[in-house]
Amino acid sequence: MTMPRSPRALVAAISITAVVLLLGYEYLLTFPGHSTLWSLPRFHFYVITPTLLALAVSAVAVGWTGIRLRDMNVLMLALAILSLNGFFLIHGLSTPGFIIADQYHLAGVASQIAMTTCAMWIFLSTLSSDNPLIRYVSKHRRSIVVGWVTVIVLMNIAALLDPGISEFIPIDLEPLNIVMAVLTVFLYLWAAGRYYQQYRLVKFPLHAAIVFGSVLLAITECVMVTTMMWTLAWWLYHFILAVSALMLLYGIIAQYRSNLSITETSRQAIPYQPLGSLRIGISSSMRNLIAATETKDEYTAGHNYRVAMYGLQLATAMNLDPERLRALTRGGLIHDVGKIRVPGEILNKPGKLTAEERVVIEQHPAIGYEMCKYTGFMTEELSVIRHHHEKWDGTGYPDKLKGTEISLLARILAIADVYDALTSRRSYREPWPHERAMQVIVEGSGTHFDPECVSAFVRLCDRGEFVVLQSAEPPLSRLLGDSDLHANL
Length: 489
Prior knowledge:
The chain is mainly α and 489 residues long.
């Protein structure tokens, strides 16, 4: 299975699929014998139920992967898949004649709860990473995953112990059932529209999969609430539901099947660093964005990687915890991604920029921030992307932040960024030696840079532990393609 490679192809594929499914559903409602009951409880219990359980367990594993990769899109999508299959598991377990004698009401209530909670999580995943609610989820992500899994498990146990509990949730009665169905379809279609806009910008396979899966889930909801149990149309919605869940899981796999870790490369660059099991990964899709940036800007080729490694050395020397080391390095690897929207004639101009040109190039941190805040990056990485050109005295850009208004990670990367800029070859000058670059950084303490970060950087260099990388280091897109790197999934 492959995702469409262009927005037009995606729209065409979704349109054809939707028309075929809806026409098929219409046919099932009108052909002779459409109301015949195809009662297959054994198949429903012994095939559907284990499938739902397997998908729910897979969603939990994906959720922990999202936590480890620091990817909010993956985390929220995992919670959506968990909700869909975890609550539908009640639907499967309540198949009449097995664990529960006869509880059609429970099955219907569980199905609607599954569809609506899944829609809510997918909707939440469309919000930007700087949204207060998403920031809260990001901060408490481990507790939220554990708590949501616990809720679903307890709901399954309670439903089996007391099937009549569903009588207290009358969402199958009018007009509440209509409201729930309309709300659910709206959330799915809203999410599809938002993710389609993102797909047009970055063309991530995960976004295409969510667009496709959300449309299929909207169709599933429509079929589910307008058909009778055990008819062919009722079995059709089970099929669409399974395809939808698999589509969402496939999107994550397609996004991260080439997710690459720079752990080995960082050990080679910083052999003395006690990185231990620290793994810093980016998806193949983000690597493609980095490659596009490096192709457009010759200076950026290798710069992202060196800045990330210099920032990692300084942050480690300042005893930052592994989670913030990951955030700093991930942010550093893509901190200049906004340059992809800056005209090439400005990026590669051999000489001093005009005032108008400088205004344009100074927009790249904000552009990169806008690009990345909908792609799953957490607030710590976003602060690095947006604020690595801010200055301690408030004269930087783009937000004129001052002092500790600038995040610690961005203040650290600012030193790494300037150091690499000074020690790298430019079209209008030769690279400066380490000593001269250090002098500039020390002189900028208290004006350009955080004094504490400068002091830590000086101590790191005085101890002889700072590893200077070659300015001819291969571009990051090539480093991430080396055979010594390994997949996280």
